[in-house]
């Protein structure tokens, strides 16, 4: 199944819209709370745009749910969750602003568990030019373990080069970006913790 079809099957826009209405929030109110434009929120709700992780985190905080709410299909019992290799969900394709690369691909590794404080992903980073980077920020923290390729991590004014086997932990409220180096893709496990959402 291709990424776009899997994203469509998640019905992210429908879940955002239903939750917003359930909480009796207008697009304007969610826009004010999340810092995202009304136009972007409307495009997400109408499945015109697929939101990257940082955007979905801002929406989840504005609507006071964990980001995992948007990945689940049904209520899971409180038990250990196993996601088999062939069951991983490709949940995002985040493209760079310009045509310098295909961006990031995210696969959710624990989408069947609803009540959790962390959201683990398998992420593939594409190579791109430095000038094509899109810096993101969202409340919370992130942990990354790079297991394949080389990766440049940009945090505010700093650049850190990571090699396979390196790990990284940072406050994701600071503007940050990634790009794979040497013209090859890089792969990592990324765990996102969104503070303030139970």
* CATH class assignment of the largest domain: Mainly Beta
Count of spatially separate domains: 2
Instruction: Report strand order across the widest sheet.
Output: 1-2-3-9-4-7
Return the CATH topology of the largest domain: Jelly Rolls
Structural class: alpha+beta
Q: Give the amount of beta strand, in percent.
A: 25-35%
Largest sheet: 6 strands, antiparallel
**What's the β-strand tally?**
9
Distance between the termini: 32 Å
Number of helices: 5
Average of pLDDT: 81
The helix/strand order is HHHHHEEEEEEEEE
Low-confidence stretches: 96-101
The helicity comes to 10-25%
CATH superfamily (homologous) name of the largest domain = Jelly Rolls
Shape: globular
Oligomer: single chain
Radius of gyration: 16 Å
Query: Any guess at the CATH architecture of the largest domain?
Result: Sandwich
Folded structure, characterized:
The two termini are about 30 Å apart. This protein has five helices and nine strands. The chain has about 200 residues and is an alpha+beta fold. It has helices at about 5-10, 10-20, 25-35, 40-45, 55-60; strands at about 90-95, 105-110, 120-125, 140-150, 150-155, 160, 165-170, 175-180, 185-195. It has two domains: about 5-70, Orthogonal Bundle (434 Repressor (Amino-terminal Domain)); about 85-195, Jelly Rolls (Sandwich), CATH 2.60.120. The strands form two sheets. Strands 1-2-3-9-4-7 form a six-stranded antiparallel beta sheet. Strands 6-5-8 form a three-stranded antiparallel beta sheet, with no helix packed on it.
